[in-house]
Amino acid sequence: MSQTFLDRTLDNLRSAWRELRDSTVARGLGFDENENRKERWRNQIEACLARRGGAVSARARAATLGHDFLRLDEAGKKEFLHLLIAEFDVDRDRVSDVVADWTAADDVAERALLEAELRTALVPPFRSLLKEFNSLPQGVKFLVDLRADLLRWRREAPGLGILERDLKTLLAGWFDIGFLELSRITWNSPAALLEKLIAYEAVHAIKSWDDLKGRLEPDRRCFAFFHPGMPDEPLIFVEVALVNGIAGSVDDLINRDEDAVDPGHADTAIFYSISNAQAGLAGISFGDFLIKRVVAELQRDLPNLKQFSTLSPIPGFRSWMQKQVDARNRGEVTGLPAIAGASATVRANRGLPVHIEAAITDCEDLFEPQPSAERPEQVSPETREALEQLCCWYLLNARRPDSGTAFDPVAHFHLTNGARVERLNWLGNGNEAGWQQSFGMMVNYLYDLADIEKNHESYVGQGRIAASGAVKRLAR
Amino acid sequence: MSQTFLDRTLDNLRSAWRELRDSTVARGLGFDENENRKERWRNQIEACLARRGGAVSARARAATLGHDFLRLDEAGKKEFLHLLIAEFDVDRDRVSDVVADWTAADDVAERALLEAELRTALVPPFRSLLKEFNSLPQGVKFLVDLRADLLRWRREAPGLGILERDLKTLLAGWFDIGFLELSRITWNSPAALLEKLIAYEAVHAIKSWDDLKGRLEPDRRCFAFFHPGMPDEPLIFVEVALVNGIAGSVDDLINRDEDAVDPGHADTAIFYSISNAQAGLAGISFGDFLIKRVVAELQRDLPNLKQFSTLSPIPGFRSWMQKQVDARNRGEVTGLPAIAGASATVRANRGLPVHIEAAITDCEDLFEPQPSAERPEQVSPETREALEQLCCWYLLNARRPDSGTAFDPVAHFHLTNGARVERLNWLGNGNEAGWQQSFGMMVNYLYDLADIEKNHESYVGQGRIAASGAVKRLAR
Amino acid sequence: MSQTFLDRTLDNLRSAWRELRDSTVARGLGFDENENRKERWRNQIEACLARRGGAVSARARAATLGHDFLRLDEAGKKEFLHLLIAEFDVDRDRVSDVVADWTAADDVAERALLEAELRTALVPPFRSLLKEFNSLPQGVKFLVDLRADLLRWRREAPGLGILERDLKTLLAGWFDIGFLELSRITWNSPAALLEKLIAYEAVHAIKSWDDLKGRLEPDRRCFAFFHPGMPDEPLIFVEVALVNGIAGSVDDLINRDEDAVDPGHADTAIFYSISNAQAGLAGISFGDFLIKRVVAELQRDLPNLKQFSTLSPIPGFRSWMQKQVDARNRGEVTGLPAIAGASATVRANRGLPVHIEAAITDCEDLFEPQPSAERPEQVSPETREALEQLCCWYLLNARRPDSGTAFDPVAHFHLTNGARVERLNWLGNGNEAGWQQSFGMMVNYLYDLADIEKNHESYVGQGRIAASGAVKRLAR
Amino acid sequence: MSQTFLDRTLDNLRSAWRELRDSTVARGLGFDENENRKERWRNQIEACLARRGGAVSARARAATLGHDFLRLDEAGKKEFLHLLIAEFDVDRDRVSDVVADWTAADDVAERALLEAELRTALVPPFRSLLKEFNSLPQGVKFLVDLRADLLRWRREAPGLGILERDLKTLLAGWFDIGFLELSRITWNSPAALLEKLIAYEAVHAIKSWDDLKGRLEPDRRCFAFFHPGMPDEPLIFVEVALVNGIAGSVDDLINRDEDAVDPGHADTAIFYSISNAQAGLAGISFGDFLIKRVVAELQRDLPNLKQFSTLSPIPGFRSWMQKQVDARNRGEVTGLPAIAGASATVRANRGLPVHIEAAITDCEDLFEPQPSAERPEQVSPETREALEQLCCWYLLNARRPDSGTAFDPVAHFHLTNGARVERLNWLGNGNEAGWQQSFGMMVNYLYDLADIEKNHESYVGQGRIAASGAVKRLAR
User: Fold this and answer.
1) Contact C56 D229 (CB under 8 A)
2) Global pTM value
3) Using an 8 Å Cβ cutoff, are A442 and A414 in contact?
4) Facing B5 at nearest CB: one of A2, A111, A292
5) ipTM metric
6) Boundaries of each Malonyl-CoA decarboxylase N-terminal domain copy (chains A, B, C, D) (predicted)?
7) What average pLDDT does chain A have?
8) Per-residue pLDDT tens over the stretch C49-64
């Protein structure tokens, strides 16, 4: 809807509302806006769903409701949402009727018709309303942010969870990968957009505009997916360094001491940061597509590139190890159930392999109280060796008890995409966060295009994790 | 998906295919591409739906299928679609199970969960596949055109009708009005776009590039809705003339004999042509939004405009009148059932009012054989008067027997939008088509913004048709 | 200048003018607009040059004058221009003074200062005024068109010639090649631009929008230079066909019977039409730059291209031959002076070589009265052979008596650019124009990048014309 | 020129150069790059000016020279420029000849022709070369920066001054106001552009990206002029605050404590900062056009605006006052010659008016040693009153001895543009720079569109300075 038209309608509705309120007050009837707002919302929602005044007016009315919603405080918003779920949920009597007809039908064509009817009956009226909010000037973003709110609130009441899941379905349809546009982001991009990268970067915080500018130099690349319904908002973005040979230290990439490489001569692209930018799109996955689209773009523009690799954190390693140490301190058998892996060896032993147990012993004094080292540089060569063995073992064997997938979430993401574990990097991330996650170690996942499908199938089908010889040897 | 990536995958799949075929032939086994293609499609669809090789590969595989589909002839396409509906329809056993659980559940939260499951179970796998086709370079347009095909074929087999309706649901979600962009089209627009206007114009054919240029002069406006998924394709467009006073003759507007009006000084905008451009979006309505968005745009840019009116054909009038004449010739009571209207008077009489009967008598000799006139200019003053009365009566009283809505489809469209019947124009369209539709008469529907909601509600709620005093008088 | 601001100022000036006129009339003084307009122009020009009211007002006043000028008829325009040259020419007394000082000065630094002063003194005030016209909304185009007018009028009065040459200097500075932008024109370009191609095409007339569309198919290219000061106007454009092997027939290229070539696989780019679009830029040359920029663009985008060649008309051949025939008929020695070439042989003989004389004899009956053939198809094999020999000889040897450069203007253009005469094509252009120019023959000029500089130097320095062996053989 | 083409030519030339060098070294001849470079430049310049290899090659050769020049250090650049002026200056013998012919000619038409020839003869060859540098990728910017260098170096050798002035003429032609584009700059502009605002802001330094963002909020405007030849570089920009009533404190505007105003309701636009961005365009004036274009834009977009005013520094006040105090301390008559104004009264008195002398006495203890106050807040009410009187007197009466124009440069700029001195603001700029310039006072210049032309004429013609009654009273 045009802003003009919406604004005018909005103004009309507001005037009408003020007149009503004033006349009420004038008649000495008192007037409590809050008390009555629920009634007001109900009326407006009903008018909107009944398409009173025609489709265009209904759309404008929905926009008005959206505007009002945006001005509510958190309590008000929840009240509104509760109203939605309480009074504009699926009509279960109607569902019952259609279900009965469907069960009775024996002809496929008739069933097909009734299925269409059932689908319609199963769309809750509140979804029709939510959908109309996309006519608000920033309507799509409004719904994405509403889902972000609902994700935080969903445990407070079952209704909010229902709404959240329904909204997810709506958004998943709209944000189909086919509608997204891949754009390169450069230092020539709008400042208003770059500011959002600073805000949304989730892996290696961007500390200043200078830091950001360094990440957009000619030997760097940044790509993001955008949706035409919210063109100013990146959905997900990736930062890439063009270098020679696989990079092992993120500090070197970000602090840019080394000389820049001529992009046309670089042989390796390092994906060193991938950030989801929209909390409200959680569970709607773009990362796999982003990486592969960017690989295709880079191949086309820079034919010299031979390797595509990540430089990734290992967020679960230290906490996993802490659990092993704690278990051992409690006299329990380590390894299971906490790390119940899919590997038969592990299952048979119902515990960690002996050499891994030994490695844990070697590293035990890194934990509180009185850790033997507080920075990777202080770690003794022996401990370092043990840590590297342990971490490789962790990456290849530690699994989620329920699904059998890799325990480490970042590993799981790249393995699902078909990458392989390529190289462990001691001192890959020297800062405090790196120490807390993985004693400063980072790992490269290599995207070898020839093997991506095979690796994916092996991992998803049989739980096998692809790795380089070097990593496998360390894990043994 | 990037073209590059798709193309490469496509090439891989084609190579594999050729190898298979060649080796088959080499082994002396014979090879009939057509015979085996069904099997091949089945395998590819299954691989695609199982996300074999990962989501990106599945998407690429879907694109490959889409490419293949596009190269099929009509019979091949239908064969493919039959395969889809026959083997990738809803899993009815699963639906049965969920329905059983839902019926057994008594808790609302549990039911809500099961409803989500039921919604998922009701999505036929073929829809998942169709959805993935939007990653084709022109994927959205591909699906829109597929639906256009299905609309033509749907009576041939029930399955095609099911597909068509399902595709409509998918497209209706994507083409939500909130995602459309209104753009003005001018003589500075790309020729490739303007060429489509010439092709799609459905009301007053554009005869040449000169004719088109005339419709884009400074005192004309043309607006269209576009969808970001098919940015080169107008969805619907409207042609507007800026004039002084309500225009009554479309020939004057198109042939441009008169001097151009300074747009800033015009007081009236005449919407003289609205064309839907995509057969595959039939039943997904944009016209109401288009008109009102354009009115808002015009108001903002040209504050001098005071009136917004159409100059519209009356496509149903002559055929309706022919029916009356035929009925009378057969000795039947005219008026009903053919024109069963909502008006109480008409219903009570179970026939046309006496003066309308008389008017029909006056005009009877316009029909074959040996019509008394073959062009509006030849009509006698008395007959003209009778025709004008009849036509006004027709616009205000002739109704669809089932719905009670206006018999004339164009009238129904504008009345639903909240317009009123403003003025009948003798000689409004002097060409053959105009004569065939309505003896050359045209009508103005006036969009008076202050009355739009009221008119809509009256028409939709009570079937009352708003009209100017002049039209009402003529109809009486 | 913003339109708004200009318009306002314009309105003010017009009101003032009307007031003046009305009061004059009111006082019974009579008022002849035409009689007084010279006085009015003089006052406005003086105010403008004196920067009365400040620089912005002066610029607005110049714009007003420009607007008035545009509304004048041809006589009025000439009157205005005569006023300019008569009263706002160089101040020759001032020039005399500076010249005297310069002559007296013996120090280089002092001379340099006086030269700067002399340059300023030599700028006629009318040029300052003309320069300010570029603030008109279409100011640069205005000046370009003004020069086109002056080119037509310059023989009428010496002052107009002075103005024309001065304007050329001004435009040459503005249209420096460094400011031009090369743009590809496609079927997606604005119709308003494509319409200009149709109007400006000077070599092979574009007969319709369909014809134009054919020239913009995927295996065709069209490029134009644009200037940022008149972004809607092409300055010069070239049409290119992507084919395999050098093309010899323009009909085949334009009528498109053959199958399209995949542009990525074509090995040859044929430049078959180059048109200057702005008469007012005559003598300011862009063609050489255009061809070489386009070659560079094509090489980058289509690495498969191996050859770059024109397919060109031979506009001077038939008229040159007519002269030879006429001379012979008058019993004169042919060859000189009409075709006084640079070649020593020709000069020594003071006539055409014997075999060329013989060839002319063979072709003589192609001329009126009673030509033996009226279309290339009717020419006998013997005559054809003689014509081909003659034409090759003409291309390589016929020269302008004054400059010794190639007699054929198209040949001169491409030879100056460093191309070589590659191949003569019988039936290259089968239409009437082709017959009138060169009995339907066309010629390819080949741009071999390795030889361009050498060819240019040979031609410009020693008058040597580069040609393929085949052409040389035919000419011998 | 396309980068590609240039690069290739460049590479060719470099290869040739390396070959030459290598072969020289191989022949044991020794090779000093620096020793020979002058010879090399000379050859290249000659080749370029002789258009050797054709116009396109000459242009490429010039570009190569430009590339080489850019890599030189300051000494190398000067050496190159000295070569240019020493060997490629005007051909004075040719000028002499043409001057002699011109003097001898008595016919106007002949003189006009000779003047054209004289103009050509007066163009030094080095200018032809410089002009060709605009084909470098950033060629226009290259020349602008070259002039900035020359402005710094021009006193070192007369030749550099000649070059500088000649380059100014060239640039003045190219940067004609008619070619400039006004663009609004917002927070959505490219970061690479915004970064330049931070660097170029010359009045109130932009301290950070946050500070910059504050200046681009919805109730602020920023506009700049751009030239199509260097589209990434602002030429001049202005910052505007939309407020209610004339603002007196720049701190309030920049530090944004107050609430933002709805731009549509603001009645006043305050121009609080105007910065020239290109040192190399010094003396080519855009400020007057910028202000008036921005006024026109603002009027169109925000019809509520009633007043357009600056909030300006008074950079010359304190130094002027220091001179008065010093003169008095030396026992001289104050006022003249330092402030020789155009006003008859002042001239007659050959000194400052008595009350102004008294005001200076009242303020004398603000100067070193031991100033009585170091910040505007510490100034006593009496001294403040005296300072305000003095400052108003200064603005209206202090003049340049040579030109009689306003002594204060900012005043002179706005008065020339037709503004009037509107209001003096105590504490207008509370920071150290404000104290050093004008004891923290600032002044508003009001642009009253109705009076601009009149004010300009009065100031430029009679030296009369327009001022508000309040300012005049204070100055009295």
Assistant:
1) no
2) 0.89
3) no
4) A292
5) 0.86
6) 88-175
7) 87
8) 998 888 898 888 888 8
